[in-house]
Design brief:
The chain is an alpha/beta fold. The protein has helices at 20-24, 31-38, 52-67, 91-99, 115-129, 152-155, 214-236, 253-263, 274-277, 284-294; strands at residues 3-12, 16-19, 42-45, 76-80, 106-109, 134-141, 161-170, 175-182, 190-191, 211-212, 245-248, 303-310, 314-321. The protein is built from ten helices and 13 strands. The protein binds coenzyme A.
């Protein structure tokens, strides 16, 4: 059987950093409220002329370098994002071209904050069937461009960035199990009211902003993330205590603490980047993975569980031996 394994990771964060103290000057909020209610202390924000594909290209270069791969080695590109540069062509084709990756399937995939987990799951399947051998998988988001900067309920939560991995065919796992899901009944709790076939005329006006029922999202997120994590472990016959690391979606430190508690995992085994990045949507998990790989916490051979939850709702987990 063919397995898949991550052989390199990379990340890119925009240069501009916005702290909670900066936000205090923009909306009625305090550093103390943001830190205690969300865990966020600062976030990176794209420049006006910076796009999601710009960030993808930089993150991808680092991942390819870490994996010892050149663009010619890559035979598929999959990018999870809610904020592609254009409605079409899809963002993966832009990134493929800019990196000089030879013609191959290039898939742009939208699953809100679960985008990277969906993309990694898809890449794993293509590798298992033998249809791909070396996939560039990216989660990236320029979500601050969707924010209403006068809405304190949402503008304090989010940040921009991109995280990339190279997923390669391998004789040993690698990825042990992927579980993804969605339930569209929750549309009204978290959405952006502009698209290509509906309300397009509003795009770019202050009428369009992220709509979120924070408290309700919080509750469903905690129970769903707990379930999807337990299911991943059960399916693999692995006990919580065997896990080396949990790399959760970085939306809110309180959601992460509640999920870790449900799993019986001490916070020492949880990778936390929400304080530095905020909620970067599809980029959050691969950014946290790269931080932990490069600072030496996540080591080859360790058992890692990644999980995410986002608008839709969508959710998913990937259990792997790094
Ligand atoms: N600064 C100061 N006060 C703020 C604020 C801010 N930035 N944002 C909201 N408030 C106020 C609210 O207006 C409310 O005031 P009120 O009681 O006078 O109405 C009060 O703080 C408490 O709001 P509440 O909604 O109860 O706070 P909370 O503890 O639920 O935290 C969230 C709010 C958004 C941080 C939290 O619900 C959350 O993280 N939800 C999940 C969001 C998420 O993860 N979304 C993405 C999913 S992928």
């Amino acid at each position: 059987m063919i397995h898949s394994k991550i052989s390199g990771t990379g990340r890119y964060l925009p240069e501009r950093v916005l702290t909670n103290f900066d936000l205090e000057k923009m909306v009625e909020t305090t550093d103390e409220w943001i830190r205690t209610r969300t865990g966020v202390e600062r976030r990176h924000v794209c420049a006006d002329d910076e796009t999601t594909s710009d960030m993808c290209v930089e993150a991808a270069k680092h991942a390819m370098e870490a994996a010892g791969k050149t663009p010619a080695d890559v035979d598929m590109v999959i990018i999870g994002t809610t904020t592609p540069d254009l409605i079409f062509p899809n963002i993966a084709t832009l990134v493929q071209h800019r990196l000089g990756i030879p013609a191959c399937p290039a898939i742009g995939l939208e699953a809100a904050c679960t985008g990277f987990i969906y993309a990694l799951t898809t890449a794993d399947k293509y590798i298992q069937t033998g249809d791909a051998k070396c996939v560039l998988v990216i989660g990236a988001e320029c979500i601050t461009k969707l924010l209403d900067w006068s809405d304190r309920n949402t503008c304090v939560l989010f940040g921009d960035g991109a995280g990339a991995v190279i997923l390669e065919a391998s004789e040993e796992p690698g990825i042990i199990g992927c579980h993804i899901g969605a339930d569209g009944q929750y549309l009204d709790l978290l959405y952006y009211p502009v698209g290509a076939s509906k309300e397009l005329q509003k795009a770019g006006t202050d009428e369009a902003a992220i709509m979120m029922a924070g408290k309700e999202v919080f509750k469903v997120a905690v129970s769903t993330l707990g379930d999807v994590a337990s299911r991943a472990l059960e399916a693999a016959g692995i006990e919580q205590s065997e896990l080396d690391w949990l790399i959760p979606h970085q939306a809110n430190v309180r959601i992460i603490q509640a999920t870790a508690k449900r799993l019986g995992l001490p916070m020492e085994k949880v990778i936390l980047t929400v304080q530095d990045h905020g909620n970067t949507s599809a980029a959050s998990v691969p950014l946290a993975l790269d931080v932990a790989v490069r600072d030496g916490r996540v080591k080859p051979g360790q058992l890692v569980l990644m999980e995410a939850f986002g608008g839709g709702f969508t959710w998913g987990s990937v259990l792997m031996r790094f």
